[in-house]
Amino acid sequence: MTESKKKEILSDFIDDLNKERKPRAYRASQVDEETEKLFETVRALRRTQRKGEEGKGTKNSQVTKGGGRTGSNRQQVESPLAWRLKKAALVAGAALLILVAFLGVLDTEYFPQQNIVHGVVKAYEDLESYAGTAEIRSRRNGEVDYQETIEITYQKPWRYKAVHHFDGREVKNISDGERLVSVYPHDITVDNVFPEKELWRYHIGNQVWELKGAEEVKEVGEESILGRQALVLEYRYRDYDYRMWIDKKTNLPLKKELTRHDGTSSLVVEFKDIEINPQVDPELFTHEGVKPGEDIFILEQEQEYEEINRRGSLEEVNTPFNLEKLKESLPSSYDLFAVGILEENPFFRYVLRFRGEQEMDFLDVYLSSSPREGAFFSASQLGKLGEGYVEVNRGAPNVMDLYVGDRSIARWVTPEFEAFLVANQGSDLPLKLLEKVSGEEMEDATLSQLKKESVEFPAEKEGP
């Protein structure tokens, strides 16, 4: 990597950290070890800088968590010139520290534990499967108010069997990587399009990606869990403070804890036993009620069966949206995983699901020929694009109640169609693709400006 390219990457990374968004470098490709060390150096410099600024307060100023000082009614605002000088110093400092570190002069202060976050991410990338028992506990005012155990066997990508026990009930979620079968006491539901949707609460991969997305991670000690020595980390993610226990031998999470600031409640996800890379029988990911070689479910007495969507083909997708241009514009690492026909969805008729090289690299494209004006996410950016308008949000929360956590979205509404794109948090892929499909760049605008410019907002129609 050239020096100019390093400076460009570092400059973008520092901008993203200061705007409190996921760094662009993580959004669409794997960050190599050299670049990750550069990023950790920047984080270390920021930590050192904050400590220095915290020591400069006066008796009339209060030090904020980010290092800025505020008086009783006024807040000091950093000038653009001061920020440019500070960023240049960070970039130069990072490059110098990398050189010194490679010469062996600098050790743990700026590269603690040889970058534990990078080690955790690498360990999960090398993982093929795991099996164990996880426990979820919710505690309020010192009392456990909810407890669930999950017997989980997972194999990449998205194959898993999870048996949940809570409130005296048992629920099974079984995915063969393409469809999810959920077995409840009185019914069976099948999701043919979103096999991964029940993993979010306890999946090791989710914990790793969360840790990777944290702005700053601190090691606060060591403890023994399951007879294993674990590093205890503290980090902040999506405005919440967490602790995570990392197995020193495997570099993988064993426990995660979220505690409210006032200490009145906490949520813990903890593995009670776990095996890494066990041999897994593929038959485990097939529901026992399916006849061999057939797609027929054997139901127990009083059980009901429902498929909430179905898989189709591109030939079934009838839309004015330019699908060919979309496919041409996708990164080469993305492949079509599934075409979903959403017959029960009130807003969209189709979803095209694309996957990248890494497990969390994805793009989902929802399409409807009956566009709606609809509501906007808070903090969304609006603009004009082609014959319609676009909404962009790189951190939209709990999209459609399907994507738990934050995701990057871009929604394009025209008189003829609505396209809603969802990708990893912080990704600019949704907007870039819409701009390529339209052949134009988004023009920033407020809602009132769009209406004044006579951007046509579609009348609501029945159905998707």
TrEMBL record:
This is DUF2092 domain-containing protein. Keywords: Membrane, Transmembrane, Transmembrane helix. Residues 450-464 have a biased composition (Basic and acidic residues). The keyword Nucleotide-binding does not apply. Residues 44-75, 445-464 are annotated as: Disordered. The chain crosses the membrane at residues 88-106. It holds the Pfam family MucB_RseB. Residues 160-283 form the MucB/RseB N-terminal domain. The lineage of its organism: Bacteria, Bacillati, Bacillota, Clostridia, Eubacteriales.
